[in-house]
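In response to a reviewer's request, we include the raw inputs and outputs for one of the modeled complexes. The two entities were modeled together in a single run.
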Amino acid sequence: MSVLELRSVSRRYGQGASEVSALSDVSMRVEAGELVAVMGPSGSGKSTLLTIAGTLEEASAGEVLIDGVAVSALSGDDRAALRRHRIGYVFQDFNLLSGLTAVENVALPMELDGEARSKARAAAMAVLARLGLSEFADRFPDELSGGERQRTAIARAVVGQRRLLLADEPTGALDSVNGDSVLRLLRQACRDGVAGVLVTHDARLASQTDRIIYLRDGYVVDESSARPGPESLLVNEPPR
Amino acid sequence: MSMRHALLALLSDGPSYGWKLRQDFEARTGEVWPVNGQVYTTLQRLERDGLIEADEADVDGAQRRFQLTEGGRDELARWLQTPAELSAPLREDLVIKVMVALGLAHVDARALLQVHRRHLVEVMREYARVKDAAPDDVNLAMVADAEVFRLDAQVRWLDLVESRIAESGSQMRAKSAAGPAVLPHRRAKVGRRG
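The model returned the following structure tokens for the whole complex.
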């Protein structure tokens, strides 16, 4: 069963002559262990796709399923619980709370969800260790570089029982080296068992994911296959 | 990429054999460029031009060992400091293809741009995979990065073309109805490679 499935999802804003279509008939599936890029220019609908996948916004038509459960069938409270328990977000601006250390930031979603502080902290330490970030645990955000903050934000997004990781231009504020390390961590987090969706306009970033969905004007216009196999990459043109 | 100068650079570290130079060249370029027999023919030419010579250790004749001459050292220094040829526009196949296509009424420009975008990104993915397969090979990573950035620049250019078409769609259509667009090679010979 796919962690995330969109079935013919459309999203329209406004009515009548002023109606604007942000997403049109989008279908996609994302499996556990997979990181999928949704690539498109600004205005292509990729952020709308992410907010609908994250149940922050409702589809005008079609269906969103998370772990096989149709989101539209859930009550408001159940939807909020699903969002808190199962979905993690990573944004361009890391959104860490400056008064909390890295491990406290990572533990926060679980604590807000009613988990005991000690248990939440243990889960946060575990995810930091799994992602190789233990050394950041007791540092405050202003003691971390931009790349380190974003890596902490990724740990926060997958802490506990989260199954779906949604990232919106997560390397937009970072240089190439830090951007690459953030992407490696996203991939690692997905390989550990969550399903990841990364929306970006950046081909270099998208090329490091398992699969790419191209969005234009709210439509899926193209899709790449799974990552290429181990065939040799040899440039035919020899040096002169 | 100049094989001549790459060999001069390798020999500036000290005398070496043909087989060793070939091995070093491939290792330093992350084995992205297979060179086959080119090393030996290039060595012959460098020797003919007086830029390298067989050194004194060349006794049994079975394996020749080469070293730089003074002239070779000068040539290497000159090459390293010469700016890469970037100022004149490249005769870029993709650019020409897209510019031609935009002037054709029957071509769906956005679909065509996507075909090329997808192809470029697929090649970028292969480089990402190559880097993943050898995470400790720094030379390979640097050469692959150079290719990825080059391809990325082309994808960005396609994105920009697409947004320019969207912005000036009506003008473009009017233009194409009036006749074919002026192609780059018909423009004045500004910046053309000599």
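As requested, we also summarize the result in words. The radius of gyration of chain B is 23 Å. Strands of chain B lie at 16-17, 52-54, 65-68.
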